[in-house]
Design brief:
21 helices; disordered N terminus; Beta-Lactamase; elongated; alpha/beta; 9-stranded mixed β-sheet; about 25% strand; about 35% helix; Rossmann fold; 8-stranded mixed β-sheet; 3 domains
Length: about 600
Amino acid sequence: MLDRLLSSDAECNCEPTFEAGRLHVESADCPGAGRLTEEPACRRTVIEVLQRRDVETVCTRANGFERAYEDAAAGLLVAAGRFADAVGFRDEALADRARTDPLGAGQTAAGRGGALARLVAETGLSAFLGSDYETALRPHVGPTVAHSRIATRPPAGATLQERYELDTGAIVRKYRGDPLGTYHLTPAEHRLSADATNTLAAAHRRLARGAISGGTRAPARAVRSVASDEQPVGTLASTLAKHTRGLGVLDDCFADPAITDAFATAPVTDNQIRVRCGGEIFNTNVRLTEKGVSALASRFRRSSGRAFSQADPTLDATADVAGRRIRVAGVTDPVSNGTGFTFRAHDESAFRLVDLVENGTIPPDAAAFLSVITARGSATLVAGSRGAGKTTLLGSLLWEIPSDVRTVAIEDTPELPISELQSNGRDIQPLHVSTGDGTSIEATEALRTALRLGDGALVVGEVRGEEAQVLYEAMRVGAADGTVLGTIHGGGGESVRERVVTDLDVPESAFADTDIVVTVEAYNGSDGRTRRLKSIETVTRTSSGVGFELLFDADSGIDRLCTPEALEPFCGPMETTDDIHREIERRRVELVG
Protein backbone atom coordinates (compact mmCIF):
# COMPACT_ATOMS: atom_id res chain seq x y z
CA MET A 1 0.00 0.00 0.00
CA LEU A 2 1.27 3.47 -0.88
CA ASP A 3 0.40 6.97 0.30
CA ARG A 4 -2.75 6.57 2.38
CA LEU A 5 -4.60 9.81 1.75
CA LEU A 6 -7.65 10.94 3.73
CA SER A 7 -10.36 13.24 2.42
CA SER A 8 -10.64 16.62 4.10
CA ASP A 9 -14.33 16.97 3.18
CA ALA A 10 -16.51 16.61 6.29
CA GLU A 11 -19.46 15.34 4.21
CA CYS A 12 -17.55 12.29 3.01
CA ASN A 13 -15.81 9.60 5.01
CA CYS A 14 -14.28 7.77 2.05
CA GLU A 15 -10.68 6.63 2.61
CA PRO A 16 -8.62 6.50 -0.62
CA THR A 17 -5.46 4.41 -1.02
CA PHE A 18 -3.18 4.09 -4.05
CA GLU A 19 -2.02 0.65 -5.14
CA ALA A 20 -0.41 -0.41 -8.43
CA GLY A 21 -1.99 2.22 -10.68
CA ARG A 22 -5.35 2.02 -8.98
CA LEU A 23 -7.18 4.15 -6.47
CA HIS A 24 -8.97 2.00 -3.91
CA VAL A 25 -11.60 3.83 -1.86
CA GLU A 26 -13.05 2.31 1.31
CA SER A 27 -16.50 3.84 1.69
CA ALA A 28 -18.11 1.65 4.34
CA ASP A 29 -18.42 4.55 6.80
CA CYS A 30 -19.41 7.13 4.20
CA PRO A 31 -23.06 8.26 3.86
CA GLY A 32 -22.56 8.41 0.08
CA ALA A 33 -21.12 4.84 -0.02
CA GLY A 34 -18.62 5.88 -2.70
CA ARG A 35 -21.27 6.28 -5.40
CA LEU A 36 -19.38 8.73 -7.59
CA THR A 37 -22.18 8.95 -10.15
CA GLU A 38 -24.69 10.33 -7.63
CA GLU A 39 -22.66 11.78 -4.72
CA PRO A 40 -20.75 15.08 -5.29
CA ALA A 41 -19.06 14.79 -1.88
CA CYS A 42 -17.55 11.41 -2.81
CA ARG A 43 -16.48 12.84 -6.18
CA ARG A 44 -14.67 15.64 -4.32
CA THR A 45 -12.68 13.13 -2.23
CA VAL A 46 -11.57 11.20 -5.29
CA ILE A 47 -10.81 14.20 -7.51
CA GLU A 48 -8.78 15.88 -4.75
CA VAL A 49 -6.57 12.80 -4.59
CA LEU A 50 -6.29 12.65 -8.39
CA GLN A 51 -4.91 16.21 -8.47
CA ARG A 52 -1.63 14.58 -7.38
CA ARG A 53 -1.36 11.53 -9.66
CA ASP A 54 -3.08 9.61 -12.45
CA VAL A 55 -4.59 6.14 -12.18
CA GLU A 56 -6.10 3.59 -14.54
CA THR A 57 -8.98 2.54 -12.31
CA VAL A 58 -10.91 3.90 -9.35
CA CYS A 59 -12.64 1.30 -7.15
CA THR A 60 -14.96 2.22 -4.30
CA ARG A 61 -16.09 -0.39 -1.79
CA ALA A 62 -19.01 -0.21 0.66
CA ASN A 63 -21.60 -2.52 2.20
CA GLY A 64 -20.16 -5.64 0.57
CA PHE A 65 -20.28 -4.06 -2.91
CA GLU A 66 -17.55 -2.72 -5.19
CA ARG A 67 -17.88 -0.15 -7.96
CA ALA A 68 -15.10 -0.08 -10.54
CA TYR A 69 -14.75 3.12 -12.59
CA GLU A 70 -12.66 2.14 -15.59
CA ASP A 71 -11.89 3.27 -19.14
CA ALA A 72 -13.83 6.48 -19.92
CA ALA A 73 -15.16 6.78 -16.35
CA ALA A 74 -11.64 6.69 -14.93
CA GLY A 75 -10.57 9.06 -17.71
CA LEU A 76 -13.14 11.65 -16.62
CA LEU A 77 -12.01 11.49 -12.97
CA VAL A 78 -8.33 11.79 -13.93
CA ALA A 79 -9.06 14.69 -16.28
CA ALA A 80 -11.08 16.39 -13.52
CA GLY A 81 -8.13 16.03 -11.13
CA ARG A 82 -5.74 17.51 -13.67
CA PHE A 83 -8.09 20.39 -14.44
CA ALA A 84 -8.75 21.21 -10.77
CA ASP A 85 -5.02 21.27 -10.10
CA ALA A 86 -4.19 23.40 -13.15
CA VAL A 87 -7.07 25.89 -12.91
CA GLY A 88 -6.49 26.48 -9.19
CA PHE A 89 -3.62 28.82 -10.02
CA ARG A 90 -6.03 31.07 -11.99
CA ASP A 91 -9.49 30.64 -10.44
CA GLU A 92 -9.80 28.82 -7.10
CA ALA A 93 -13.60 29.04 -7.12
CA LEU A 94 -13.70 27.24 -10.49
CA ALA A 95 -11.19 24.66 -9.19
CA ASP A 96 -13.37 24.02 -6.14
CA ARG A 97 -16.41 23.48 -8.36
CA ALA A 98 -14.39 21.12 -10.56
CA ARG A 99 -13.89 18.82 -7.55
CA THR A 100 -17.63 18.18 -7.21
CA ASP A 101 -19.00 19.10 -10.65
CA PRO A 102 -16.17 18.75 -13.19
CA LEU A 103 -18.54 18.67 -16.17
CA GLY A 104 -20.18 21.93 -15.13
CA ALA A 105 -16.83 23.57 -14.30
CA GLY A 106 -15.38 22.47 -17.63
CA GLN A 107 -18.36 23.82 -19.53
CA THR A 108 -18.01 27.18 -17.76
CA ALA A 109 -14.27 27.36 -18.44
CA ALA A 110 -14.74 26.47 -22.11
CA GLY A 111 -17.36 29.19 -22.43
CA ARG A 112 -15.00 31.82 -21.04
CA GLY A 113 -12.41 31.03 -23.72
CA GLY A 114 -8.75 32.01 -23.60
CA ALA A 115 -6.42 30.34 -21.11
CA LEU A 116 -9.24 28.62 -19.23
CA ALA A 117 -10.56 27.01 -22.41
CA ARG A 118 -7.05 25.82 -23.27
CA LEU A 119 -6.77 24.16 -19.85
CA VAL A 120 -10.01 22.29 -20.49
CA ALA A 121 -8.53 20.90 -23.70
CA GLU A 122 -5.02 20.26 -22.34
CA THR A 123 -6.23 18.27 -19.34
CA GLY A 124 -8.56 16.10 -21.46
CA LEU A 125 -11.72 17.33 -19.77
CA SER A 126 -13.10 18.66 -23.06
CA ALA A 127 -13.67 15.08 -24.29
CA PHE A 128 -16.44 14.64 -21.70
CA LEU A 129 -18.30 17.94 -22.04
CA GLY A 130 -21.90 17.59 -23.14
CA SER A 131 -22.26 14.30 -21.27
CA ASP A 132 -23.91 13.60 -17.91
CA TYR A 133 -22.64 11.72 -14.87
CA GLU A 134 -24.95 8.75 -15.35
CA THR A 135 -23.37 8.14 -18.73
CA ALA A 136 -19.81 9.36 -18.16
CA LEU A 137 -19.36 7.81 -14.70
CA ARG A 138 -20.97 4.45 -15.38
CA PRO A 139 -19.24 1.87 -13.14
CA HIS A 140 -18.90 -1.87 -13.37
CA VAL A 141 -20.31 -3.20 -10.11
CA GLY A 142 -20.35 -6.43 -8.16
CA PRO A 143 -20.38 -7.93 -4.67
CA THR A 144 -16.96 -8.08 -3.07
CA VAL A 145 -17.22 -11.88 -3.01
CA ALA A 146 -17.46 -11.95 -6.82
CA HIS A 147 -14.52 -12.00 -9.22
CA SER A 148 -16.46 -10.21 -11.92
CA ARG A 149 -17.97 -6.79 -12.48
CA ILE A 150 -21.26 -5.97 -14.18
CA ALA A 151 -22.28 -2.90 -16.18
CA THR A 152 -25.76 -2.36 -14.80
CA ARG A 153 -27.13 -0.06 -17.50
CA PRO A 154 -27.94 -1.32 -21.00
CA PRO A 155 -26.02 -0.03 -24.04
CA ALA A 156 -26.95 3.50 -25.07
CA GLY A 157 -29.77 3.52 -27.61
CA ALA A 158 -30.23 -0.25 -27.39
CA THR A 159 -33.52 -1.93 -28.30
CA LEU A 160 -34.70 -4.72 -26.03
CA GLN A 161 -35.25 -7.91 -27.99
CA GLU A 162 -35.95 -10.51 -25.30
CA ARG A 163 -36.07 -10.91 -21.51
CA TYR A 164 -36.09 -14.10 -19.44
CA GLU A 165 -35.00 -15.50 -16.07
CA LEU A 166 -32.53 -18.35 -15.52
CA ASP A 167 -32.70 -21.09 -12.90
CA THR A 168 -29.95 -19.29 -10.97
CA GLY A 169 -32.24 -16.29 -10.52
CA ALA A 170 -30.25 -14.20 -13.01
CA ILE A 171 -32.17 -11.99 -15.44
CA VAL A 172 -31.15 -12.00 -19.11
CA ARG A 173 -31.97 -9.13 -21.45
CA LYS A 174 -30.95 -9.37 -25.08
CA TYR A 175 -30.49 -6.13 -26.98
CA ARG A 176 -30.15 -5.68 -30.71
CA GLY A 177 -26.94 -4.06 -31.84
CA ASP A 178 -24.65 -3.37 -34.79
CA PRO A 179 -22.56 -5.35 -35.46
CA LEU A 180 -23.11 -7.38 -32.26
CA GLY A 181 -26.04 -7.50 -29.90
CA THR A 182 -25.63 -7.42 -26.11
CA TYR A 183 -26.36 -10.29 -23.75
CA HIS A 184 -27.12 -8.22 -20.64
CA LEU A 185 -26.91 -10.29 -17.46
CA THR A 186 -28.18 -9.27 -14.02
CA PRO A 187 -27.17 -11.95 -11.48
CA ALA A 188 -29.46 -12.57 -8.51
CA GLU A 189 -26.96 -11.02 -6.08
CA HIS A 190 -27.26 -7.67 -7.87
CA ARG A 191 -30.86 -7.44 -6.70
CA LEU A 192 -30.05 -8.01 -3.03
CA SER A 193 -30.62 -5.28 -0.45
CA ALA A 194 -27.63 -3.51 1.08
CA ASP A 195 -28.22 -5.41 4.32
CA ALA A 196 -28.27 -8.79 2.54
CA THR A 197 -25.12 -7.89 0.57
CA ASN A 198 -23.37 -7.05 3.82
CA THR A 199 -24.41 -10.44 5.18
CA LEU A 200 -23.01 -12.12 2.05
CA ALA A 201 -19.68 -10.36 2.59
CA ALA A 202 -19.62 -11.39 6.26
CA ALA A 203 -20.31 -15.02 5.36
CA HIS A 204 -17.52 -14.93 2.81
CA ARG A 205 -15.07 -13.58 5.39
CA ARG A 206 -15.94 -16.43 7.76
CA LEU A 207 -15.47 -18.94 4.97
CA ALA A 208 -12.14 -17.42 3.86
CA ARG A 209 -10.78 -17.47 7.43
CA GLY A 210 -11.56 -21.17 7.74
CA ALA A 211 -14.07 -20.54 10.52
CA ILE A 212 -16.62 -22.73 8.72
CA SER A 213 -16.07 -26.34 7.65
CA GLY A 214 -18.35 -28.78 5.90
CA GLY A 215 -17.05 -29.25 2.35
CA THR A 216 -19.71 -28.53 -0.24
CA ARG A 217 -22.12 -27.46 2.51
CA ALA A 218 -19.73 -24.87 3.92
CA PRO A 219 -21.16 -21.88 1.98
CA ALA A 220 -24.68 -22.55 3.26
CA ARG A 221 -23.38 -23.03 6.80
CA ALA A 222 -21.41 -19.78 6.57
CA VAL A 223 -24.52 -17.86 5.50
CA ARG A 224 -26.70 -19.37 8.23
CA SER A 225 -24.09 -18.42 10.82
CA VAL A 226 -24.51 -14.69 10.10
CA ALA A 227 -27.93 -14.25 8.42
CA SER A 228 -31.11 -13.13 10.12
CA ASP A 229 -34.42 -14.94 9.72
CA GLU A 230 -35.73 -12.18 7.45
CA GLN A 231 -32.94 -12.48 4.89
CA PRO A 232 -33.02 -14.65 1.69
CA VAL A 233 -30.76 -17.40 3.05
CA GLY A 234 -31.22 -19.65 0.00
CA THR A 235 -30.18 -16.95 -2.47
CA LEU A 236 -27.25 -15.91 -0.28
CA ALA A 237 -26.04 -19.51 0.09
CA SER A 238 -26.26 -20.26 -3.64
CA THR A 239 -24.51 -17.00 -4.46
CA LEU A 240 -21.67 -17.72 -2.04
CA ALA A 241 -21.31 -21.26 -3.41
CA LYS A 242 -21.27 -19.91 -6.95
CA HIS A 243 -18.42 -17.52 -6.23
CA THR A 244 -16.35 -19.84 -4.01
CA ARG A 245 -17.03 -23.36 -5.30
CA GLY A 246 -18.23 -22.62 -8.82
CA LEU A 247 -17.06 -20.43 -11.68
CA GLY A 248 -18.85 -17.29 -10.54
CA VAL A 249 -20.75 -15.42 -13.19
CA LEU A 250 -19.96 -18.17 -15.70
CA ASP A 251 -22.36 -20.37 -13.72
CA ASP A 252 -25.06 -17.90 -14.67
CA CYS A 253 -24.01 -17.87 -18.32
CA PHE A 254 -24.05 -21.65 -18.70
CA ALA A 255 -27.32 -21.94 -16.81
CA ASP A 256 -28.73 -20.61 -20.08
CA PRO A 257 -29.05 -23.71 -22.31
CA ALA A 258 -28.79 -21.50 -25.41
CA ILE A 259 -25.19 -20.55 -24.53
CA THR A 260 -22.58 -22.90 -25.97
CA ASP A 261 -19.41 -20.79 -25.66
CA ALA A 262 -17.98 -18.00 -23.54
CA PHE A 263 -14.80 -16.08 -24.38
CA ALA A 264 -12.71 -14.21 -21.81
CA THR A 265 -10.07 -12.47 -23.92
CA ALA A 266 -6.80 -11.27 -22.42
CA PRO A 267 -6.35 -8.82 -20.88
CA VAL A 268 -9.63 -9.69 -19.17
CA THR A 269 -9.94 -6.40 -17.28
CA ASP A 270 -10.05 -4.57 -20.63
CA ASN A 271 -12.39 -6.91 -22.48
CA GLN A 272 -15.97 -7.86 -21.75
CA ILE A 273 -16.84 -11.52 -21.92
CA ARG A 274 -18.46 -12.56 -25.19
CA VAL A 275 -20.86 -15.48 -25.53
CA ARG A 276 -22.28 -17.59 -28.33
CA CYS A 277 -26.00 -17.84 -27.66
CA GLY A 278 -28.29 -19.64 -30.06
CA GLY A 279 -25.43 -19.76 -32.55
CA GLU A 280 -24.97 -15.96 -32.49
CA ILE A 281 -22.08 -14.03 -30.91
CA PHE A 282 -23.03 -11.38 -28.32
CA ASN A 283 -21.13 -8.86 -26.28
CA THR A 284 -21.97 -9.01 -22.59
CA ASN A 285 -21.98 -6.51 -19.76
CA VAL A 286 -19.58 -8.70 -17.74
CA ARG A 287 -15.85 -8.44 -17.09
CA LEU A 288 -13.62 -10.67 -15.02
CA THR A 289 -11.29 -9.03 -12.51
CA GLU A 290 -7.57 -9.80 -12.26
CA LYS A 291 -8.27 -11.73 -9.07
CA GLY A 292 -11.01 -13.56 -10.89
CA VAL A 293 -8.83 -14.79 -13.72
CA SER A 294 -6.09 -15.75 -11.26
CA ALA A 295 -8.60 -17.74 -9.22
CA LEU A 296 -9.81 -19.55 -12.34
CA ALA A 297 -6.24 -20.36 -13.40
CA SER A 298 -5.48 -21.75 -9.95
CA ARG A 299 -8.64 -23.84 -9.93
CA PHE A 300 -7.95 -25.37 -13.34
CA ARG A 301 -4.36 -26.15 -12.38
CA ARG A 302 -5.64 -28.11 -9.38
CA SER A 303 -8.46 -29.89 -11.18
CA SER A 304 -6.40 -30.87 -14.24
CA GLY A 305 -3.18 -31.70 -12.38
CA ARG A 306 -1.27 -29.78 -15.05
CA ALA A 307 0.93 -26.75 -14.98
CA PHE A 308 -0.39 -23.46 -16.32
CA SER A 309 2.37 -20.89 -16.12
CA GLN A 310 4.94 -19.02 -18.19
CA ALA A 311 6.86 -22.28 -18.52
CA ASP A 312 3.72 -24.09 -19.77
CA PRO A 313 1.44 -21.33 -21.05
CA THR A 314 -1.49 -23.36 -22.46
CA LEU A 315 -4.26 -25.23 -20.68
CA ASP A 316 -6.80 -27.87 -21.63
CA ALA A 317 -9.22 -28.86 -18.87
CA THR A 318 -12.85 -29.60 -18.12
CA ALA A 319 -15.31 -28.35 -15.52
CA ASP A 320 -18.89 -29.11 -14.51
CA VAL A 321 -20.90 -25.89 -14.59
CA ALA A 322 -24.64 -25.62 -13.98
CA GLY A 323 -24.99 -29.34 -14.63
CA ARG A 324 -23.14 -29.13 -17.94
CA ARG A 325 -19.73 -30.39 -18.95
CA ILE A 326 -17.55 -27.48 -20.06
CA ARG A 327 -14.25 -27.74 -21.88
CA VAL A 328 -11.79 -25.03 -20.88
CA ALA A 329 -8.91 -23.81 -23.06
CA GLY A 330 -6.52 -21.26 -21.58
CA VAL A 331 -3.48 -19.20 -22.57
CA THR A 332 -1.21 -17.02 -20.51
CA ASP A 333 2.11 -15.17 -20.71
CA PRO A 334 4.33 -15.23 -22.69
CA VAL A 335 2.17 -16.46 -25.59
CA SER A 336 -0.64 -14.06 -24.62
CA ASN A 337 -0.95 -10.60 -23.17
CA GLY A 338 -2.13 -11.95 -19.84
CA THR A 339 -4.42 -14.89 -19.12
CA GLY A 340 -7.47 -15.63 -21.26
CA PHE A 341 -9.97 -18.47 -21.48
CA THR A 342 -12.45 -20.06 -23.84
CA PHE A 343 -15.27 -22.09 -22.30
CA ARG A 344 -17.17 -24.49 -24.55
CA ALA A 345 -20.18 -26.57 -23.50
CA HIS A 346 -20.06 -30.21 -24.48
CA ASP A 347 -23.66 -31.15 -23.79
CA GLU A 348 -23.51 -32.99 -27.11
CA SER A 349 -21.11 -35.57 -25.66
CA ALA A 350 -24.04 -37.81 -24.65
CA PHE A 351 -25.81 -37.42 -28.00
CA ARG A 352 -26.71 -40.55 -29.91
CA LEU A 353 -27.07 -40.96 -33.65
CA VAL A 354 -30.83 -40.54 -33.41
CA ASP A 355 -30.26 -37.09 -31.84
CA LEU A 356 -27.96 -36.07 -34.69
CA VAL A 357 -30.54 -37.25 -37.21
CA GLU A 358 -33.30 -35.31 -35.46
CA ASN A 359 -31.31 -32.05 -35.39
CA GLY A 360 -30.31 -32.37 -39.04
CA THR A 361 -26.58 -32.96 -38.51
CA ILE A 362 -26.60 -36.35 -40.28
CA PRO A 363 -29.03 -37.74 -42.88
CA PRO A 364 -30.77 -40.96 -41.77
CA ASP A 365 -29.17 -43.19 -44.42
CA ALA A 366 -25.66 -41.98 -43.57
CA ALA A 367 -26.32 -42.46 -39.84
CA ALA A 368 -27.60 -46.00 -40.47
CA PHE A 369 -24.52 -46.82 -42.55
CA LEU A 370 -22.15 -45.57 -39.82
CA SER A 371 -24.14 -47.44 -37.17
CA VAL A 372 -23.86 -50.77 -38.97
CA ILE A 373 -20.19 -50.57 -39.95
CA THR A 374 -19.23 -49.46 -36.43
CA ALA A 375 -21.02 -52.47 -34.97
CA ARG A 376 -19.16 -54.65 -37.48
CA GLY A 377 -15.71 -53.50 -36.41
CA SER A 378 -14.76 -50.72 -38.82
CA ALA A 379 -11.65 -48.61 -38.42
CA THR A 380 -13.06 -45.09 -38.72
CA LEU A 381 -11.47 -41.67 -38.42
CA VAL A 382 -13.74 -38.68 -37.82
CA ALA A 383 -12.15 -35.58 -39.36
CA GLY A 384 -12.93 -31.89 -39.23
CA SER A 385 -11.75 -28.54 -37.95
CA ARG A 386 -11.96 -27.31 -34.38
CA GLY A 387 -15.59 -26.98 -33.26
CA ALA A 388 -16.90 -28.97 -36.22
CA GLY A 389 -18.45 -31.65 -34.00
CA LYS A 390 -15.86 -34.44 -34.25
CA THR A 391 -16.12 -35.45 -30.59
CA THR A 392 -19.92 -35.24 -30.69
CA LEU A 393 -20.08 -37.70 -33.60
CA LEU A 394 -17.42 -39.94 -32.05
CA GLY A 395 -19.39 -40.07 -28.79
CA SER A 396 -22.56 -41.02 -30.65
CA LEU A 397 -20.75 -43.86 -32.46
CA LEU A 398 -19.68 -45.39 -29.14
CA TRP A 399 -23.33 -46.30 -28.55
CA GLU A 400 -23.26 -48.36 -31.77
CA ILE A 401 -20.55 -50.70 -30.49
CA PRO A 402 -22.29 -53.94 -29.36
CA SER A 403 -23.00 -54.00 -25.64
CA ASP A 404 -21.02 -57.24 -25.15
CA VAL A 405 -17.83 -55.70 -26.58
CA ARG A 406 -15.22 -54.33 -24.18
CA THR A 407 -14.07 -50.83 -25.11
CA VAL A 408 -10.97 -48.92 -24.03
CA ALA A 409 -11.11 -45.14 -24.58
CA ILE A 410 -8.02 -42.92 -24.50
CA GLU A 411 -8.47 -39.15 -23.92
CA ASP A 412 -6.30 -36.28 -22.73
CA THR A 413 -9.35 -34.20 -21.75
CA PRO A 414 -12.49 -36.12 -20.67
CA GLU A 415 -15.18 -35.34 -23.24
CA LEU A 416 -16.65 -38.68 -24.28
CA PRO A 417 -19.83 -39.98 -22.57
CA ILE A 418 -17.97 -42.62 -20.54
CA SER A 419 -20.12 -42.41 -17.40
CA GLU A 420 -23.35 -42.47 -19.45
CA LEU A 421 -22.21 -45.59 -21.30
CA GLN A 422 -21.17 -47.29 -18.07
CA SER A 423 -24.50 -46.41 -16.48
CA ASN A 424 -26.16 -48.19 -19.39
CA GLY A 425 -24.26 -51.39 -18.73
CA ARG A 426 -21.42 -50.91 -21.23
CA ASP A 427 -17.95 -52.23 -20.38
CA ILE A 428 -15.83 -49.21 -21.21
CA GLN A 429 -12.47 -48.45 -19.58
CA PRO A 430 -11.22 -44.84 -19.80
CA LEU A 431 -7.51 -43.98 -19.88
CA HIS A 432 -6.49 -40.35 -19.32
CA VAL A 433 -3.24 -39.27 -20.89
CA SER A 434 -1.04 -36.31 -20.03
CA THR A 435 -0.03 -33.32 -22.13
CA GLY A 436 2.81 -32.24 -19.86
CA ASP A 437 2.65 -32.20 -16.08
CA GLY A 438 0.35 -34.32 -13.99
CA THR A 439 -0.05 -37.91 -12.92
CA SER A 440 -1.44 -39.34 -16.17
CA ILE A 441 0.62 -41.41 -18.61
CA GLU A 442 1.84 -40.38 -22.03
CA ALA A 443 -0.37 -41.11 -25.04
CA THR A 444 1.93 -43.75 -26.55
CA GLU A 445 2.17 -45.71 -23.31
CA ALA A 446 -1.59 -45.34 -22.81
CA LEU A 447 -2.18 -46.93 -26.19
CA ARG A 448 0.12 -49.85 -25.42
CA THR A 449 -1.68 -50.26 -22.09
CA ALA A 450 -5.05 -50.18 -23.85
CA LEU A 451 -4.01 -53.01 -26.15
CA ARG A 452 -3.19 -55.10 -23.08
CA LEU A 453 -6.45 -54.22 -21.29
CA GLY A 454 -8.79 -55.75 -23.84
CA ASP A 455 -9.17 -57.09 -27.38
CA GLY A 456 -12.45 -55.37 -28.20
CA ALA A 457 -12.99 -51.82 -29.39
CA LEU A 458 -10.34 -49.10 -29.17
CA VAL A 459 -11.20 -45.40 -29.11
CA VAL A 460 -8.60 -42.62 -29.37
CA GLY A 461 -10.04 -39.20 -28.48
CA GLU A 462 -7.68 -37.44 -30.87
CA VAL A 463 -4.96 -38.89 -33.10
CA ARG A 464 -2.27 -36.22 -33.13
CA GLY A 465 1.15 -37.50 -32.02
CA GLU A 466 3.55 -40.40 -32.05
CA GLU A 467 0.83 -42.67 -30.66
CA ALA A 468 -0.48 -42.82 -34.26
CA GLN A 469 2.44 -45.08 -35.17
CA VAL A 470 1.59 -47.46 -32.32
CA LEU A 471 -2.09 -47.44 -33.29
CA TYR A 472 -1.47 -48.36 -36.91
CA GLU A 473 1.15 -50.95 -36.02
CA ALA A 474 -1.43 -52.58 -33.72
CA MET A 475 -3.98 -52.57 -36.53
CA ARG A 476 -1.43 -54.03 -38.94
CA VAL A 477 -0.53 -57.02 -36.76
CA GLY A 478 -4.11 -57.58 -35.62
CA ALA A 479 -3.66 -56.46 -32.01
CA ALA A 480 -6.53 -54.00 -32.54
CA ASP A 481 -8.84 -56.25 -34.51
CA GLY A 482 -12.16 -54.85 -33.26
CA THR A 483 -13.75 -51.47 -33.89
CA VAL A 484 -11.23 -48.63 -33.96
CA LEU A 485 -12.49 -45.06 -33.68
CA GLY A 486 -10.70 -41.75 -33.41
CA THR A 487 -10.83 -38.08 -34.33
CA ILE A 488 -8.26 -36.14 -36.30
CA HIS A 489 -7.93 -32.63 -37.68
CA GLY A 490 -8.48 -32.54 -41.42
CA GLY A 491 -10.86 -31.52 -44.18
CA GLY A 492 -11.29 -34.86 -45.95
CA GLY A 493 -9.52 -38.06 -46.93
CA GLU A 494 -6.54 -36.50 -48.69
CA SER A 495 -5.80 -34.04 -45.89
CA VAL A 496 -6.14 -36.81 -43.30
CA ARG A 497 -3.72 -39.01 -45.27
CA GLU A 498 -1.27 -36.09 -45.42
CA ARG A 499 -1.64 -35.55 -41.68
CA VAL A 500 -1.14 -39.22 -40.75
CA VAL A 501 1.52 -40.17 -43.28
CA THR A 502 3.57 -36.98 -43.62
CA ASP A 503 3.10 -35.22 -40.28
CA LEU A 504 2.75 -38.25 -37.97
CA ASP A 505 5.20 -40.46 -39.90
CA VAL A 506 2.88 -43.46 -40.31
CA PRO A 507 3.73 -45.63 -43.37
CA GLU A 508 1.17 -45.22 -46.11
CA SER A 509 0.73 -49.00 -46.26
CA ALA A 510 -0.28 -48.92 -42.58
CA PHE A 511 -2.67 -46.01 -43.08
CA ALA A 512 -4.44 -48.15 -45.69
CA ASP A 513 -5.82 -50.23 -42.78
CA THR A 514 -8.25 -47.34 -42.15
CA ASP A 515 -11.66 -48.31 -43.52
CA ILE A 516 -13.58 -45.04 -43.49
CA VAL A 517 -12.86 -41.29 -43.18
CA VAL A 518 -15.91 -39.31 -42.05
CA THR A 519 -15.66 -35.51 -42.32
CA VAL A 520 -17.87 -33.06 -40.41
CA GLU A 521 -17.95 -29.29 -40.67
CA ALA A 522 -19.34 -26.20 -38.96
CA TYR A 523 -20.69 -23.35 -41.05
CA ASN A 524 -22.90 -20.29 -40.79
CA GLY A 525 -26.28 -21.13 -42.25
CA SER A 526 -29.53 -19.21 -42.43
CA ASP A 527 -30.37 -20.31 -38.87
CA GLY A 528 -26.97 -19.33 -37.48
CA ARG A 529 -23.92 -21.46 -36.85
CA THR A 530 -24.63 -25.15 -37.40
CA ARG A 531 -22.87 -28.46 -38.00
CA ARG A 532 -23.32 -31.15 -40.59
CA LEU A 533 -21.88 -34.32 -42.06
CA LYS A 534 -19.80 -33.21 -45.02
CA SER A 535 -18.57 -36.47 -46.53
CA ILE A 536 -17.90 -40.18 -46.07
CA GLU A 537 -14.97 -41.74 -47.93
CA THR A 538 -13.73 -45.29 -48.03
CA VAL A 539 -9.96 -45.87 -48.03
CA THR A 540 -8.70 -48.08 -50.86
CA ARG A 541 -5.34 -49.63 -51.62
CA THR A 542 -3.99 -48.80 -55.07
CA SER A 543 -0.86 -49.71 -56.97
CA SER A 544 0.52 -46.25 -56.17
CA GLY A 545 -0.44 -46.22 -52.47
CA VAL A 546 -3.78 -45.12 -51.00
CA GLY A 547 -6.88 -43.79 -52.70
CA PHE A 548 -10.31 -42.61 -51.61
CA GLU A 549 -13.75 -43.47 -52.90
CA LEU A 550 -16.42 -40.87 -52.18
CA LEU A 551 -19.49 -42.60 -50.76
CA PHE A 552 -21.39 -39.55 -49.56
CA ASP A 553 -21.02 -35.83 -50.24
CA ALA A 554 -23.39 -33.21 -48.83
CA ASP A 555 -22.57 -30.57 -51.44
CA SER A 556 -22.92 -32.65 -54.61
CA GLY A 557 -25.61 -35.01 -53.34
CA ILE A 558 -23.53 -38.13 -54.01
CA ASP A 559 -24.86 -41.12 -52.04
CA ARG A 560 -23.21 -44.48 -52.80
CA LEU A 561 -23.38 -45.80 -49.24
CA CYS A 562 -25.27 -49.01 -50.11
CA THR A 563 -23.45 -49.99 -53.25
CA PRO A 564 -21.87 -53.48 -53.22
CA GLU A 565 -18.40 -51.93 -53.40
CA ALA A 566 -19.06 -49.90 -50.23
CA LEU A 567 -20.54 -52.82 -48.28
CA GLU A 568 -18.27 -55.68 -49.37
CA PRO A 569 -15.48 -54.99 -46.81
CA PHE A 570 -17.96 -55.47 -43.95
CA CYS A 571 -19.48 -58.77 -45.04
CA GLY A 572 -19.10 -61.81 -42.84
CA PRO A 573 -18.01 -65.21 -44.24
CA MET A 574 -21.58 -66.34 -45.00
CA GLU A 575 -23.07 -62.95 -45.86
CA THR A 576 -23.80 -60.98 -49.00
CA THR A 577 -23.93 -57.24 -49.46
CA ASP A 578 -27.72 -57.57 -49.67
CA ASP A 579 -27.72 -58.80 -46.08
CA ILE A 580 -25.88 -55.68 -44.92
CA HIS A 581 -28.10 -53.49 -47.06
CA ARG A 582 -31.18 -54.88 -45.30
CA GLU A 583 -29.52 -54.31 -41.92
CA ILE A 584 -28.80 -50.69 -42.84
CA GLU A 585 -32.39 -50.16 -43.95
CA ARG A 586 -33.72 -51.59 -40.68
CA ARG A 587 -31.44 -49.24 -38.75
CA ARG A 588 -32.52 -46.28 -40.89
CA VAL A 589 -36.17 -46.95 -40.07
CA GLU A 590 -35.30 -47.09 -36.34
CA LEU A 591 -33.48 -43.76 -36.53
CA VAL A 592 -36.33 -41.89 -38.18
CA GLY A 593 -38.87 -43.37 -35.74
